[in-house]
Amino acid sequence: MGLLEIVQDVHDGAVVVRAGGEVDSRTVDSLSEALTAAVAEAATHPARVLVVELDGVTYFGSAGLNALLNCSEKARAEGVAVRVVATGAEVLRPIEVTKINTVLPPYRSLGEALAVTDETQ
């Protein structure tokens, strides 16, 4: 059983939250708290963008999906765009199966997520 590590960075183009490890019912509170704090930070950032980088995640359960959706709703209410970076099947498969990718399309890299100029993403 892996731990969840979360790091938040502020870039010129966005607030970035990187998660690594397992996101499940045991660790989701840490992720949710980090995402809530990041939304608040992004709401004061000139770019008003939050990137959630999940490439280091080794397990992504339904709790993680709910945390992402809650983050997206909070961010939308604050006028913050949320972009998800995910390339691993552990994260992509649950996002695609639940159709969350229609709301939060995954990007292949941080650079790709930061390069988006359409704020509807």
Task: Provide the fold topology.
Layout: E1 4-10, E2 15-23, H1 28-44, E3 49-60, H2 62-78, E4 81-85, H3 89-97, E5 106-107, H4 110-115
Parallel strand pairs: 2-3, 3-4, 4-5
Antiparallel strand pairs: 1-2
Helix pairs in contact: 1-2
Q: Could you characterize the architecture of this molecule?
A:
Residues 4-117 form the STAS domain. It comes from Mycolicibacterium iranicum. Belongs to the anti-sigma-factor antagonist family. This is Anti-sigma factor antagonist. The chain is an alpha/beta fold and 121 residues long. It is built from four helices and five strands. α1 (28-44) runs parallel beside α2. It has a five-stranded mixed sheet with strand order 1-2-3-4-5. β2, α1 (28-44) and β3 (49-60) form a beta-alpha-beta unit. It has helices spanning 28-44, 62-78, 89-97, 110-115, and strands at 4-10, 15-23, 49-60, 81-85, 106-107.
Descriptors:
40% helix, 121 residues, 4 helices, alpha/beta, globular
Alpha-carbon distance between the two ends: 34 Å
Q: Which stretches of 5+ consecutive residues score pLDDT under 50?
A: none
Count of alpha/pi helices? 4
Shape: globular
User: What gyration radius follows from the Cα positions, in whole Å?
Assistant: 13 Å
Strand order in the largest sheet:
1-2-3-4-5
Mind describing the biggest β-sheet? 5 strands, mixed
Q: How many DSSP-defined strands? A: 5
Give the rounded overall mean pLDDT: 94
Reading the helices and strands in chain order gives: EEHEHEHEH
Helix content: 40-55%
Structural class: alpha/beta
Strand content: 25-35%
